[in-house]
Amino acid sequence: DKLQGEINVLEMRLAENDAKMKVAAQEKIRVELLEAQLEKLRNELDQRGATERSVFDLYESQNNVFNKEAPLLQNNTLLQNSSVHSLSDELSLLRSENMSLKNDIEALREELSNVKNTDERVAILVKQHSLMKSSLQDLESKLIASEEDVSKLSSLKVECKDLWEKVYTLQALLDKATKRADQAILVLQQNQDLRKKVDKLEESLEEAVVYKLSSEKLQQYNELIQQKMKLLEEHLQRSDEEIHSYVRLYQDSVQEFQDTLKSLKEESNKRALDEPIDDMPWEFWSHLLLIIDGWLLEKKISTDDAKHLREMVWKKDGRICDAYMESREKNEREAVSRFLKLTSSSKR
């Protein structure tokens, strides 16, 4: 499409150049006519100049004769004056015509110079015409080559389309073959499973045949099994009852232990309030150690803080006893912060 557009533009410019060349040819013909007219006017001007010179010479000769023969020609004075006036008028008329002819010649010269410029432009246009013609031929050859490429491309597109159709067909065949292979594998697996079941059934059938031969023994064996099952059920029931009783005993013992622990805690708290620091029982200090170890395991305090608090407990420091007494009615977070204040104050 781009090449076709360029060809159309060049064809338009070529048509414009042809029109300009036609106009230049008409101008050339007109110039030739003007040159002929100019030559004609030059000839006429030369003839009129000769006539004017002859008239002027005649006038001067007549004037000289008149001057010489003035005494003799006094009678013809009026006739001479009239002829002189007529010659003067004719001379002035010739001069005016001569001036107009000169003006026409100048105008023709200007037109001739313009025509020369036109000839130069015509030569330039001819060169442009030849260049455009050659470029047009190149573009036409390129257009032909591009059309051939387009035809090749269209054939390639058709071949590509056929190949894609073949690919789709092969893909469909491959999918069908894959499905069939999967189905074959599934059928093979099913056959293997069926073969295993058949083998098991054959084994069961053989066992059944053996059992059938010893039906009495089988009957006795079934009775023994049923008796054993009954005994097992009774034993299982007794075991369940024993387990439930053990669970109840365990729950009761846990509750009793919790109650005892609670009472011990209350007694230790009362003793901690009533007794002096040095006379606090070991259970109080061991309880503090357990609290500190629990906080360390729960990562609520660092190892260094736990170590420092244990040292205060072993030393039976009164500050840790006071901190415990103050934080008994508080939550765990406030109690931890209260104990950590002891470590921060000691570090300072």
From TrEMBL:
Keywords, sorted A to Z: Coiled coil
GO MF terms held by the record: alpha-1,4-glucan glucosyltransferase (ADP-glucose donor) activity
Coiled-coil residue spans: 24-51, 84-156, 184-267
Enzyme class: transferase
Domain of life according to the entry: Eukaryota
Catalytic activity line of the entry: [(1->4)-alpha-D-glucosyl](n) + ADP-alpha-D-glucose = [(1->4)-alpha-D-glucosyl](n+1) + ADP + H(+)
EC number: 2.4.1.21
PANTHER family: PTHR46083, STARCH SYNTHASE 4, CHLOROPLASTIC_AMYLOPLASTIC-RELATED (PTHR46083:SF2)
Protein name per UniProt: starch synthase
Species the sequence originates in: Populus alba
